[in-house]
Amino acid sequence: MSRYWSNLIKNIEPYTPGEQPDDKKYIKLNTNENPYPPSPRVIEAVKRVANESLKLYPSTTCDELKSAIAWHYGIEKEQVFVGNGSDEVLAFSFMAFFNPGRHILFPDITYSFYPVYSSLFNIDYRLIPLDDDFSVTVEGFCRDNGGIVIANPNAPTGKYLPLESIEKILQCNSGSVVIIDEAYIDFGGESALKLVNEYPNLLIIQTVSKSRSLAGLRVGYAMGHKELILGLGRVKNSINSYTLDRIALAGAVEAFRDEACFRENCQKIIRTRENAVTRLKAMNFSVIDSKANFVFISHPSICAETLLQRLRERGILVRYFNKPRIDNYIRVSIGSDDEMDIALKAMEEIILLQ
Amino acid sequence: MSRYWSNLIKNIEPYTPGEQPDDKKYIKLNTNENPYPPSPRVIEAVKRVANESLKLYPSTTCDELKSAIAWHYGIEKEQVFVGNGSDEVLAFSFMAFFNPGRHILFPDITYSFYPVYSSLFNIDYRLIPLDDDFSVTVEGFCRDNGGIVIANPNAPTGKYLPLESIEKILQCNSGSVVIIDEAYIDFGGESALKLVNEYPNLLIIQTVSKSRSLAGLRVGYAMGHKELILGLGRVKNSINSYTLDRIALAGAVEAFRDEACFRENCQKIIRTRENAVTRLKAMNFSVIDSKANFVFISHPSICAETLLQRLRERGILVRYFNKPRIDNYIRVSIGSDDEMDIALKAMEEIILLQ
After folding, report:
1. Taking Cα atoms as reference points, which of A253, A294, A238, A255 lies closest to residue A91?
2. A322 shares contact with chain B (CB less than 8 Å)
3. Which residues make up the CATH 3.90.1150.10 domain(s) of chain A?
4. Which listed residue, of A141, A143, A285, B128, carries a Cα 20 to 30 Å from A106's Cα?
């Protein structure tokens, strides 16, 4: 620790992302990347803007991308905010809508960046326990709060909360902003977007990283009432006028225009997930019901950390979280059919060798 | 204002960037962009990584880019931090090294993002007046403080503070972090980098936006003692694990490898600036001595706002800041020789028509 560090960073525990090793070729089922390539239209657009215009700043308003997103979802451009990945959009949302001195609520098991943002921006929080089958409970979120964050489907469980429950939570929280983090919504869930014109306190956050195969491009977005969007703009314009480079902007626009590619890749992943779930259950794994591009699994005869290690020795990366209630689970991203076949066969062998 | 906004954003006044109009073709001398294209090697690198690998997250450590920067400057990779433009790096630095309750110091006339960051992170500040010829004074910065930020060359004046003065400021501030924002250092100033191994409280921030013609790529960087760099990493990893996309990373690496292109473009801009200064002085402009890629000018017979407006009517954009002491100046970015010739002729005509 340095004498020059602020008290803030002396006391914070940063988020740890899944590893991105480059020492050798792994089957990467650890960071929920999409196994299929992005739309060829994205690649073409990126190449097209790789020219002299890079000497100029990007758009500060990102209007073209906002319009493409608004068009895709059938909302107004003024209901869309874009940022450098959904993590940045989440961080900005904590600054824009939550206040120190008013505790916010999120589930005890969820995306581990939420407590980090809370610490960073000095926002107190209460953990609302998921029930025994890892479901978010409506009652838990109908109590005094200064804001709510719910990942739906939840991470790292993959468990989906039906829209009726989201709506009930919105109804009993008209005084605070309810953020629904829908990073994984395209793999079988129904977006809360249809509620966005009814509830001015609803903010939906999504990303092109997962369902649009663009984790490497760093584009996330929020959708909500235009007043919320203006609030996010105030944070962005107090930190960095241009959070998205010219190339990411151009590429992301095409990702929203190629509907067919997006739908097809999502369907493939859903099919692969369902096949994987069947095989995992046959191997006696306990599998949390998932509407995401990953499954969260536990096995009665091998502990999760050992399984993680054995898979790694075979060149297969998965993710493990050493946290209460989930420390005997591993999270396995849904890869291609071939990747999943290799991973599942490896698990069979590892369990047999126990 | 929305009832859902946090107190923070209700009370903040965000930064206003120079406009990026797309209604028609302007001669853009308003945002200090470089008139020359980036290295062809950058363009090639961007095209090379425009492929299926965009489905994967970028490097969290950005080691290749850090190594390229370290190699270019002859320092260690561990002395380099990279971020989404120097604005983001500055914002992270405010969080990493300054504390609420301890006022920081910066000049009364300087980059207008500094007071915005201060408000956003609740850091009190004192404005240290530049002297009558707009120079930073060493004495002003040798007083009690919790941190210092100096742009060198300063913005929007272009005025350069010699390295001896920077060193004196470092010597009388061993207890706090001194940030030297060198966004414009490559246009004739000498970087404080040579002091970096002597002063563990020195943080230098630079960007590829200006001297490397890559405003559209969004890459900034900080150089300093490895403990400071670790501190910046803690902030970044508490906000966004991946602030630089795969394409920006690949492009920026090549920008540091093509030394010849970089040097040549800087030299061209310096020559154009010196020619422009001669002509401006002949037109009776008062011209602040500039070591940046812009000049800050004032004319006795036309007020700055009128000049700005008349230039705009002729398709030439420059920048004006309605602030004490500088509200009769305009800032003119150094364009190509042809652009400057058109702008200077327009100014001659506008003044004649007064």
Report:
1. A238
2. no
3. 19-37+260-352
4. A285
pLDDT surpassing 90 at residue B96: yes
Q: Do B87 and A52 touch (CB under 8 A)?
A: no
Residue A140 has pLDDT above 90, yes or no: yes
E strand intervals along B125-275: 125-128, 148-151, 178-181, 202-207, 220-224
Residue B267 has a CB neighbour count (10 Å cut-off) of: 12
Domain boundaries for CATH 3.40.640.10 within chain A = 40-257
pTM of the model: 0.97
The answer to whether the CB of B290 falls within 8 A of the CB of B310 is no
Are B161 and B137 spatial neighbours (Cβ–Cβ below 8 Å)?
A: no
Q: Do A50 and B43 touch (CB under 8 A)?
A: yes
Of the residues A47, A218, A235, A336, the best mutation for testing chain B's interface (the one with the most B CB atoms within 10 Å of its CB) is A218
Q: How far apart are CA A46 and CA A68, in angstroms?
A: 16
Give the chain B residue nearest A83 (alpha carbons). Answer: B243
> Is residue A262 scored above 80 in pLDDT?
yes
As a whole number, the mean pLDDT across chain B is 97
Q: What is the mean pLDDT of the segment spanning B196-210?
A: 98
The CA-based diameter of chain B, rounded to the nearest angstrom, is 59
Structure-token match 């903040």, residue found: B12
pLDDT band at A61 (very low <50, low <70, confident <90, very high): very high
What pLDDT, on a 0 to 100 scale, did the predictor assign at position A24?
74
ipTM for the whole complex: 0.96
CATH topology of domain A40-257: Aspartate Aminotransferase; domain 2 (3.40.640)
pLDDT at B22: 74
Quote the CA–CA distance of A51 and B282 in Å, as a whole number: 38
Q: Is B87 on the interface with A (CB under 8 A)?
A: yes
A174 touches chain B (CB under 8 A): no
Test mutation, A20, A55, A148, chain B, max B CBs within 10 A: A55
Distance CA(A248)–CA(B248), nearest Å, equals 9
Which of B85, B116, B120 shows the shortest C-beta gap to A242? B85
Q: Is A333 on the interface with B (CB under 8 A)?
A: no
Whether residue B34 contacts residue B336, with contact meaning beta carbons closer than 8 Å, is answered with: no
Fold of A19-37+260-352: Aspartate Aminotransferase, domain 1 (3.90.1150)
Instruction: Tell whether A87 lies on the interface with B, counting CB pairs under 8 A.
Output: yes
Q: What is the pLDDT of residue A175?
A: 97
Is B97's CB within 8 Å of A4's CB? Answer: yes
Tens digits of residue pLDDT in A199-214? 999 999 999 999 999 9
